[in-house]
Design goal:
- The chain is of the alpha+beta class.
- The chain has one domain.
- Helices cover 33% and strands 23% of the residues.
- It has 6 helices and 5 strands.
- The protein has a 5-stranded antiparallel beta sheet, with helices on both faces.
- Helix 1 runs antiparallel to helix 5.
- The longest helix has 15 residues.
- The protein starts with a helix and ends in a 13-residue tail after the last strand.
Length: 171
């Protein structure tokens, strides 16, 4: 029996997470809801900036969705209080890094108006990675098509020379 595409994607992502030691997880949140919806337009430049600053670190990234209050986005700042406290689904990018990375200033990228953004860093250990992996295993993949204007890879590797390829057995 053939494996469903979403199950194959989950399996390969989980294999990546289980195959290397991760010291740090970094979440990248966008303060502009509209910019976040166009994340795939800019992801290559964002990732390039991060991998250039940290050329000696292997990194795995994942485009995902996050629940956030509307008040956190510039587009909703002038709305009534009752609307600003409502929750919305917004895109974000999660990076798993082999070492604590130096985070680039994304506003310095030419012809790239990112607006406000924020990073959050979390140290990783075996327990936190196991918890994250179990969460990914239990959930369906996020419906990126519904919330993003473009589509692209859900996950990928940066600085691949520090992340040797994983050989997947045939199905």
């Amino acid at each position: 029996m053939s494996e469903a595409s979403e199950n194959k994607t989950k399996r390969k992502f989980i294999d990546l997470l289980q195959s290397y030691p991760w010291e740090c997880k970094v979440n990248l949140y966008f303060r502009s809801y509209e910019f976040g919806k166009d994340v795939y337009k800019y992801l290559r430049r964002i990732n390039s900036s991060l991998s250039t600053k940290n050329s000696d670190i292997g990194i795995v990234y994942r485009v995902c969705l996050n629940n956030a209050r509307k008040a956190g986005f510039t587009e909703y700042q002038d709305n009534e209080y009752e609307d600003r406290i409502k929750w919305t689904t917004a895109p974000m990018v999660t990076y798993f890094c082999q070492k604590d990375p130096e985070l680039p200033v994304l506003t310095r990228i030419r012809s790239f108006d990112i607006g406000d953004y924020k990073y959050t860093k979390y140290p990783q250990n075996e327990e936190t990675m196991t918890k994250y992996i179990n969460t990914v295993k239990q959930q369906k993949p996020h419906n990126l098509d519904k919330y993003l204007n473009n589509t692209g890879q859900r996950y990928g590797r940066l600085n691949k020379k520090h992340l040797p390829s994983i050989k997947y057995p045939p199905l």
